[in-house]
Amino acid sequence: MALHFELVTPARQVRSEDVHMVVVPGAEGDFGVLEGHAAFMSTIRDGAVQVYKTEGGEPEMIEVKGGFAEVGDAGLTVLAEHVDEGA
Amino acid sequence: MASLKELKDRIGSVKSTQKITKAKQMVAAAKLRRAQAAAEAARPYALRLGAVMASLAGKVSGDSAPKLLAGTGADQKHLLVVVNTDKGLCGGLNSNVVKEAKLQAKRLIAEGKDVSFYLIGKKGRAPITREYPKGIAKHFDTSTVRTPGFEEAGGIAEELVAMFDEGAFDVAHLVAPKFQSALVQTPATAQLIPVPSPEVTDDSDAVVEYEPGEEEILEELLPRYIKTQLFGGLLEREASEHGASMTAMDNATRNAGDLISALTIQYNRRRQAAITTELIEIIAGAEAL
User: What are the distances in angstroms from CA B117 to CA B102, B135, B145, B162?
Assistant: First the structure.
């Protein structure tokens, strides 16, 4: 039970790992992605992506700016222009 | 005939030139490694963006497609975005890029189109301005930053999109060096605006939900795609510059070495000849007594 999560910026690939859940700040509201989510694509607003490594664990916050998220068979891919880790 | 002293000075000056070229070669080699790593790190983003673009562009077509994808409908005014380096000492790299740009310009003019240039980097300015003094739309200066990054690419993209919206051009092409290896960098031309429709490889019928809508996403995506293209161009330029510079400096160092050994032989022969002459004079003088 794991969701493959990738966070990519033009400069580098920030994350590529299996996690439990990711909450993405979508342009029209936050949405959480679990494994097996339906194919979905959304632009994102500036804000924090919350990465839950395990169920019920503390989320890791990653600030992202400008970009969009894509959910497909391969998992969740967030393409962002700027990433600020550890925020 | 150069005197011994002059020869010695020349050897000294060639030696110091060789030191400079050798240092520049080593600097370029180190920077090349970094530039290549940067280019590699940027690849996943470009790849994904391209894939997303392809799947979206296939869905949004016809009249509803944004202007950046469909074009203005005209094909008269062409803009050549030429990417050159800011520094020299990199062999034929810049002149090759300029040559390619002029070739494209000639081809377009022969087809009866209007051509203007958007120049990135210092080194392309002089030769292109000389040939097309009225055709220069703008320069973008990248020499103020050490390594041009995504921000510069963003600045360029914004200017280009603004110019496109004003109707300053219908079609934009990107002329930039393509890094193949430290020895080979070939200039390549690719269409930038309107964004060429990527080939649709999405054969799955998966229903994808879009938020807000397909068109809105595409509209946001296109400038970003152009930005990424330009960023890729800048990264290629960095890698090409350092690669070409490394090769050119390697050649220069070797040439200097050859020159030094030739001059040293000449110098030694001259010195021996001088000693021999002196001996003969002394012996002749002694015999005369």
Answer: 10, 6, 22, 15
